[in-house]
Amino acid sequence: xxxxxxxxxxxxxxxxxxxxxxxxxxxxxxxxxxxxxxxxxxxxxxxxxxxxxxxxxxxxxxxxxxxxxxxxxxxxxxxxxxxxxxxxxxxxxxxxxxxxxxxxxxxxxxxxxxxxxxxxxxxxxxxxxxxxxxxxxxxxxxxxxxxxxxxxxxxxxxxxxxxxxxxxxxxxxxxxxx
Length: 178
Description:
membrane, 2 strands, two-stranded parallel ribbon, mainly alpha, DUF389, transmembrane, transmembrane helix, single chain
């Protein structure tokens, strides 16, 4: 599993919400917000520098981007992808068999949406900035809601496991005596 840099604070926020830990929730939300603001600001500055060097201008915002155009055209599939990302990410982190670099890529559109926000901000692409912002908002909300629901379901199921485990241990001990 390859997790995007935003997934750790999102997972921390989800855990904090499920376990009602306000301090952890505040810290995770702050890390998420500060991380995105700093990343967007730095990317905008680099874009401004490249624009100043004459490498490109606002016309790049009008260029066809068939592979990444979905980032600034959020739709119902944006919600579906965000929810699936949230479920897959939480299951990866909570699975005893979780391993890095195997499985789905978590951060399909969050980081690209933030990058597009920065570039459109630097190149004065107001409409594109707001569409990328909408995509980022959908992604973050979808991932967070799915992560909270997944963790809450796991918690409810895991609470039942201790009732089963002692019976299994007893059965195993009884078999070993015979």
